[in-house]
Amino acid sequence: MPRIKPPLPPSTPDEIEQQLYEALQRADIEALMAVWSDDDEIVCVHPGGPRMVGAAAIRASFEALFANGAIDVRPEKVRRLQALNCAVHSVQERVNVPTEQGPKAAWVMATNVYVKSSRGWALAAHHASPGSPREAQDAAEAGSTLH
Questions:
Q1: What element of type H or E holds 8?
Q2: In contact, 59 and 76? CB cutoff 8 Å
Q3: For the chain, how far is it from start to end, CA to CA, in angstroms?
């Protein structure tokens, strides 16, 4: 009987981030929890919510979110900073929300912190806040034209 090889650990923070957003889009709690670090101090903050520390609290929060179905969220305008075994991604998230008038876009600003261990890259912190489709420098550049 052939042995099934376990999947290779994510080799980049971008790979683990892709897995994170795919899990959200499928409402797949097991895949979502698989992207998180095994560390006891992992942290998650949803927009306007409290800080949740540890896998059990984070899992419960996403199970409650998934009770309403998958989350149609797409990362946009990712800014990356990486040094040695840590990567920080500042992400503008576009969340498509169904309404009576049809789908509407909501914007969330998220910071995802990834750490590298012997099992590869994993999510250590996700902090999200309400946002807008524009960045501050976009607004400043648009308003800087002199007539």
A1: none
A2: no
A3: 76
**φ, ψ of residue 51 in degrees (nearest 5):** -80, 130
How far apart CA 62 and CA 40 sit, in angstroms, is: 17
**Best CA proximity match to 70, nearest among 125, 14, 31:** 31
pTM of the model: 0.83
Tokens of 119: 């099992």
**DSSP code of 36?**
B
Please give the average pLDDT of every successive group of 10 residues along the chain, which has 147 residues.
Answer: 56 94 96 96 96 98 94 94 96 90 91 93 96 68 52
Question: In what helix (H) or strand (E) does residue 45 lie, and over which residues does it extend?
Answer: strand 43-45
